């Protein structure tokens, strides 16, 4: 009878997805007790986690587990083996970043599960709960029947318990992360990359992401039904999406939780879940601003390829170096210096990373730069061909180190699924995804190689940022969203609310080499940016990067001496950063303290709805006097009219507690330098 | 300059997804000219198709192509090589089905494309446009650089040009097709199985599916953004989702288009795109009704496994045979007759397909049945283990043929991704998906083997139906949706609108062994069905299957002699079928003509909103007199109350043109036998 009943219950269970009434087996809360994660096992032996905040369900019971390529799934039939609790505190100093000192108290729980039948596989889950969010990861122990884990799919669910709005970009799109964000109700999302940000109807802000994506495929979100999401791993050319020897840990699946947008934006959750710096001293890297031989090719005036309009010539490089030296830019990016751009490079990438074009003398240019106190940012575009790049990587970095280049912009321009990795036989290819397991390995390979040579990496068309800059602080930035360049190719190609959305989504993951500073507000063929001039300055304070470009042609930059002066002064390194006003997708106002002085900067970017913000300067030091230099939208400024360059300038004495009221135009913004009196 | 410009345009193109202004290269219309499909190639060499109906865009320019696992994608850089046009007409007789004669005029277009660079791959597309819809498929020729095509993903888009509503189930769910349908706006779909049905705001009805899924992975829909959908192939344990030697053709991607629901439901588009019968005479298979030792296990009273409550005993089998003989049921399904049910069979499947349990004598039972003029339906549950099943398949069919069994219900009870296929080494496993390439091959292997032995196949937990019953008319049905059994396990587990939605979605693909006829309206532990008694009869006329079960316990069936009498008479084979009233998700009323007489049957099923339908009996033969016997919901019938069994019975003389007005209760229905006067 018992056997019959067991079979019946098993059969029943397989068919119905009934909410369990099982009591939690193990549970862990944040230090302030507001956030709680608990585990249970349903009637079918499926491990589930749930999250509650302030007593309200945040994540309803959500299943966990894996499909394997070569064996029974790790989904059903689990039993609880044991648990361990701990507490800890992260307390560390970033060598560069939005904040100097980072802290985070947490409570930790490790739970051990084991399947009762068949191969009795073990699956552990470790959780860390902070006051600003939580992360959990799977830890798969070494075990007799799982020496190599071939993951066909990870089946982690996220069943959002309350209705709300989501901001997201489609997972697996041909153009990778370079999409305009969609804003929909949560139950209208399809598949999405992370970070995916949500605002529940009760005001709670959430963002889902991952931390420490090492030797594993990136996680996308796939909505199953209602508000239940499930992980979907980036594909692989191999027979499984992830292949790992045990023991290993997956990346942390992270959930930032906050009462408001500021709490979401100012969290360091993923950084706190990453391993400490393992490459040592990086004082050789100094955050700075740069210009580049780049916009000319983006707007079609010059070419990367050789020919009469070749952008990267020795002569032009010297002109840029002169301009950089004169206007306080620390370095010059030069693209198109190397052989391989002639013919079809996109998704093909038959580059040389050591041979220059004949009209570009690398030694002469870098020597000239050195004499002027300027550096060159190197460029390694791969066209997606990591087989070619990896074969030359060591020599490429060696060459750059030899000529004094200390930062490289890498690129992987190819469609999603179009990365060319070496195959198993001579001449064979494996097609990979920009964010699959193979590329997670490739990027760290590049970063670690660069570190040996004291070179920093700024990766374009990259894998998403999951906080590895803590472990590898020479990984100084990446693209991984639609940046300024899209504005060159189509009128208002980046909508007015693009940056005000990026700040609450993409920018939660880490710095972006957005390349602001197109002060002409014009792309190719007269195409207009969805931006006023003041918004361009606001970007320096709102879209963080340790390397900030002034992207426009130097002669255009020179037409706006006051703005150029602001850009010269604005830091790229901060000791504090605060979102002092803003709403997801609408606008954002930051206050940041210069890491190297007592100065503060305030800046804002706005969507298409004009608005006045009132910011209280309560972050200033008490008793200190400051001079505020304000750069803001002038009367009637509007990105759609001939008043888009209209500016108003003010200088004021300010002190702690003063109010700053600033009107922002449609697609407008502002920037303020609050200089401390010496 | 030209080279620079070309590179610039290529770079521009890779970044922006601009609508093309390219003129159509090739175009084909339906015979009535309302529907038109055209091809163009965008500025980036990407092949696109568009569909227009009555001059309005139906499918906006939608991209085509493939990602390969081991080489450059077949996406960009295509040129137009040539085209061929043709016309044709399908005109054939089904051995069994909803209609006896099937016709379809079409216009056909074959277009040849070739990539200009690299390996210059060739990709052809064939289109057939009928008045009720269209289908297109890729044809990949034998070519020097593509001997074996390893498809990482198919990238066929479906950009729905007008807003509307969609009815769908989630693609890739753990419980496969066995889900309640979701009804959302088109732009809120996430991932979906096919058929996926849409009703545009202007009233146009569409359903997307595929035809002739042979040696290829099933296609799911994945919404990218807005209303753009993209194909997503079911996964594989191998390094690519599909591996095929060239030349080969993909399945047809089909789009039924109609002004109304009836046109959608009555289309034979997918059948017309399948290859003709290749197994020859199937007159040994006669559509019929059956009962079974099955509901007892579903409701938990008996077991499949051995033991004191074993369902499939020789004695019980004889009782069922007696009941079948007495009440006009042609066969008896017997589950749990064979060894392998003891222990964990779900997703494991260590069955013997030739050894019976000791208390079941296969020979004695089949001999008894034969003497009574009744057949036995065999049962091959695999628990998802096709490694075990395929090894015994020949012997299993041989045994059944020997004892006179002419139909088998197969089963694949396992989670999605949990099919166990043989690996490459001894004892190795490959985990496959129910609708992946490996299973598309397995199912035809089973059907073809069965055909040798004159055995028909009714597959549960199957791959979707794509019309292959035309080519293999012994493939008589399948499950592939949530059937009656779910009602056994939870109150109203199948919602009142479940069948009224199935009819316009799942049922467009082919017959379903839904197993109606739970006349007690009760499952295990007194759980209620979302159905009145009249609705159970309506199912026999609205949810088509060539084998129709009366699923309840015989003693329960016997309590409703009038209803049992209707079931005895209702045919399972039709010469005509018409949806004479209905709305997707709400209700459906069919009129069907018995294939073997001049009788007609009318039946309806309803959701939770009571309604009166008015049906004009204009399908009756002029000049012929009929007696209509009506079985309908009685006064106050309601699935939620103690009036759920309330029936009203009427007998009436009717003729062509008469009106039939029938009120349907909440979750109600009706059935009418319109017997022609002899």
Produce a short descriptive summary.
The structure is a homodimer of 678-residue chains. By secondary structure, chain A is an alpha+beta fold. Chain A is 17% helix and 35% strand.
Strand content of chain A: 35-45%
Main sheet record of chain A = 10 strands, antiparallel
Structural class of chain A: alpha+beta
Mean pLDDT of chain A: 96
Radius of gyration of chain A using CA atoms only: 26 Å
Low-confidence stretches of chain A: 1-7, 13-21
Shape of chain A: globular
The number of distinct helices of chain A, counting runs of at least 4 residues, comes to: 13
**Distance between termini of chain A?**
87 Å
Oligomer: homodimer
Biggest interface and which pair forms it?
A-B, 80 and 80 residues
Helix residue percentage of chain A = 10-25%
The count of β-strands of chain A is 38
Note down, in words, how this protein is organized.
Two copies of one chain form a homodimer. Chain A has 678 residues and is an alpha+beta fold. Helix content of chain A is 17%, strand content 35%. The first copy, chain A, contains 13 helices and 38 strands. In chain A, strands 6, 7, 8, 9, 12, 13, 15, 16, 20 and 21 form a ten-stranded antiparallel β-sheet that branches. In chain A, α5 (314-327) packs parallel to α6 and α7 (386-402) packs parallel to α8 (437-452). The radius of gyration of chain A is 26 Å and the shape is globular. The relative contact order of chain A is 0.09. Mean pLDDT of chain A is 96; it is low at 1-7 and 13-21. Chains A and B meet through α1, β13, β17 and β27 of A and α1, β13, β17 and β27 of B.
